[in-house]
Amino acid sequence: MILIALLVLTFIVFAVGFLYFWGINPGDITVFLTSDTSYTLPSAIMLICVLLIGLMVGNGVHFLSAFLYSFRHWKGGRRLKKSEEVGSIYRSGVGRLLSGDLKKARTLLKKALDRDSQRVDIYLALASVSLQEGNTQEGIELLQQARKLDPQGLEVLFKLATTYEETGRREESMSIYKELLEGDANNRKAMRALRDIQIDLGNWQDALALQKRILKISKSGSRADTEKQIMLQLRYEVARADLENGKGEQAIEVCRDIIKREAKFTPARVTLGDAYHQAGRDADAVKVYQDGYKALKKSIFLARLEDLYINAEDPAALLAFYRSQMQVDSEDLLLKLYLGRLCLRLEMVDEAMEHLTDLETSGIDFTKLHLLLAEAQRRRNNTEEAIIEYQKALSIDGHLLLGFVCEACGARFTEWNSRCPKCKTWDSLVLPERKQIEDAKLVEEPKMIPGGTSEK
């Protein structure tokens, strides 16, 4: 009833207003639509027409806006529902992937991708399935499609770069890492990955340049010490390359600086001695090798000393060093091993037997020690031909090399390297029986004196 009353009242007010307006505006108004078409109407009628047109336009806009809003809301609801359904399928697929059910994971992720082909995370998950199945090319193609959808996505780029690297496509991998660094010059992860590739390729200068950038933004934190150590290692590799290229003075300067910073870094000491030897400064080389052994007890220094003295035809000086060191530390079993081998090479068979037997009675038991002992026994009989055959049968070379083993991966080598050729670990090659020798203790046995009694 109230609504009807309001409508009637509104009509009355409108009618009164209309009559009032018509009464004070008795004239007509002519409206031209074109130069030849016009309409003449009373001013009150014209006003009513204008008002009606305005109301119609206003209401039309309002109704259109309301319709569009409702349509968008309906469409958004459908998208949300679809997104939730796709997300649920995707999560199930990822769950299957993590549990190792690759077949079911592929089925679910393909279903999710069919429902929504614009989701980057689905492509990434499917790529992981393909890679785990061994279908590398399909995995790369899926990652490339993800990259098209998200050209700057860090997760996509890193995944693609890592996959390229793992499949041996290093140039493409490096290209992506460089692209990442163009967008973010301080991206440490990209710099480290690119540095590691350069290291694997032996591009030491490029690796060192990247490491300087890494160290500049990693001055503190848990990785700072590790990055500093890598910096020293790369500086060493550059110095070693300089030495190989005839730049001995540069190599000497860098190696001396590295030793000051990290006295326990064996490769720098070895290469410093090598650089001195290459420069004709054998006295300096000898001092470096001797100091290196005294400080670190590594067999490579003894091997280098042997090579230098034997090539110089001065084994007496080496023998004197060994004996003087034995006086300093009579329980140095590693030195005793090398001294016994040197005596054997110099045909000092009795002294060789003494030192080698001391090793054996200390509980040390490895093939090369027994071969050295066997060789000494043979030489006591002076049967040269038998010795030669014995060497051939047991693959013993003329120098009775002891070889090296990597402490990190266990790989064995006849020659020493500053970095393991297999696992790429620096300063890891040692005598295979080093640990056994270090842990053993020299056992003093009573020595026989003339007359058949033992010396107490």
Provide key terms for this protein.
single chain; 456 residues; mainly alpha; three-stranded antiparallel sheet; two-stranded antiparallel ribbon; 20 helices; 7 strands; 5% strand; elongated
Description:
- This protein has 456 residues and is mostly helical.
- It has a domain at 10-78.
- The chain has 20 helices and 7 strands.
- The chain has helices at 2-24, 43-99, 102-115, 120-133, 136-149, 154-166, 170-183, 188-201, 204-216, 224-244, 248-261, 266-278, 282-296, 299-311, 315-328, 333-345, 349-361, 367-380, 384-394, 434-439; strands at 28-32, 38-42, 404-406, 412-413, 429-430, 447-448, 454-455.
- A 3-stranded antiparallel β-sheet has the order 4-3-5, with no helix packed on it. Strands 1-2 form a two-stranded antiparallel ribbon. A two-stranded antiparallel sheet has the order 6-7.
- Helix 10 runs antiparallel to helix 11 (248-261).
- The longest helix is centred in the first third of the chain and has 57 residues, at 43-99.
The outline comes out as elongated
| Average pLDDT number | 85
Distance between the termini: 134 Å
Beta fraction of the residues?
under 5%
Poorly predicted spans = none
Radius of gyration, taken over Cα atoms and rounded to an integer in Å: 44 Å
Instruction: Please identify the oligomeric state.
Output: single chain
Placed side by side, the strands forming the largest sheet appear as 4-3-5
Q: Based on DSSP secondary structure assignment, what is the total number of beta strands?
A: 7
- Tally of contiguous helical segments: 20
The structure class reads mainly alpha
Task: Write the element-wise H/E pattern from the N-terminal end onward.
Answer: HEEHHHHHHHHHHHHHHHHHHEEEHEE
Percentage of residues assigned to helices: over 70%
Major sheet attributes: 3 strands, antiparallel
